[in-house]
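Bumping my old thread because nobody answered last time. Still need a sequence for this structure:
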């Protein structure tokens, strides 16, 4: 009998509450600032719209649903932000987020040459770039493999003007800086201003099996040499000045895929060209 009476009382209370306008039973809402994150500049945090008051840990004056946080260079790399909210019933809740701050990278490098008898120029490069969690890539402009270390050194086998490019990157940005090797490895007059550059063409390049070296209007004996990127000579020949056809077909089928250097010499000038053998 007592159980029946209790059931009756609960039923009446439920019916009474259901007749009151806008009355419902629901769980307390909680803010959600999302997972911990890494940012480069500013970030906007949103605690959600289901509350009547907000208080952020960033400042006593931050009492809106959202807050924008701006970061200055050199600021503490880790920041913890939390918000306390209150809903219409007076219930309160909170959430916390950890923000990892990465500065925008700044690129730079210096270099110095070292005299070595076996090569045209040896350069040692010191990376002066700044930034968090940086990846590095060095391209020496002569077809050699990329170097992925912070600092680098490289041997240039033959005289010429090349371009050294450093690329740095993190989650904020990717930046490339290129410098001509003439600032490190000056070359003698006559090589830099060689007229062979405008007279001689090599095609196709890259090529899989052969390249055609066209000497244009150059009517003097030409020496051709093919080198790998370590300076080892792979092929050598002469094209006499009396040869009617002012071109030469260079067979690449016997060398592995990769980068090479072609040295073209006349009595007073010489020219170095990059050559790539790859599948077409």
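Sorry it took so long. Here it is:
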């Amino acid at each position: 009998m007592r159980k029946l009476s209790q059931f009756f009382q609960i039923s009446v209370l439920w019916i009474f509450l259901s007749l009151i306008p806008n009355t419902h039973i629901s769980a307390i809402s909680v803010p959600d600032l999302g997972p911990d994150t890494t940012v480069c500049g500013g970030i906007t945090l949103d605690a959600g719209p289901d509350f009547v008051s907000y208080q952020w840990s960033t400042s006593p004056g931050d009492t809106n649903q959202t807050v924008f946080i701006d970061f200055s260079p050199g600021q503490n790399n880790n920041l913890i932000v939390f918000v306390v909210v209150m809903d219409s019933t007076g219930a309160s809740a909170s959430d916390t987020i950890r923000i990892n701050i990465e500065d925008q990278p700044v690129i730079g490098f210096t270099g110095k040459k070292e005299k070595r008898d076996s090569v045209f120029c040896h350069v040692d490069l010191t990376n002066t770039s700044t930034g968090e969690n940086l990846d590095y890539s060095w391209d020496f402009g002569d077809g050699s493999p990329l170097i992925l270390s912070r600092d680098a050194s490289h041997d240039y086998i033959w005289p010429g003007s090349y371009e050294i490019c450093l690329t740095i990157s993190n989650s904020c940005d990717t930046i490339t800086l290129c410098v001509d090797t003439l600032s490190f490895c000056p070359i003698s007059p006559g090589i830099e201003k060689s007229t062979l550059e405008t007279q001689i063409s090599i095609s196709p390049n890259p090529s899989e099996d052969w390249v055609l070296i066209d000497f244009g209007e150059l009517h003097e004996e030409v020496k051709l040499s093919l080198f790998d990127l370590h300076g080892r000579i792979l092929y050598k020949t002469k094209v006499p000045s009396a040869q009617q056809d002012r071109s030469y077909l260079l067979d690449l089928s016997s060398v592995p895929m990769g980068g090479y250097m072609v040295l073209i010499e006349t009595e007073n000038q010489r020219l170095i060209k990059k050559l790539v053998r790859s599948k077409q």
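Helices lie at 2-19, 196-199. Let me know if any region looks off to you.
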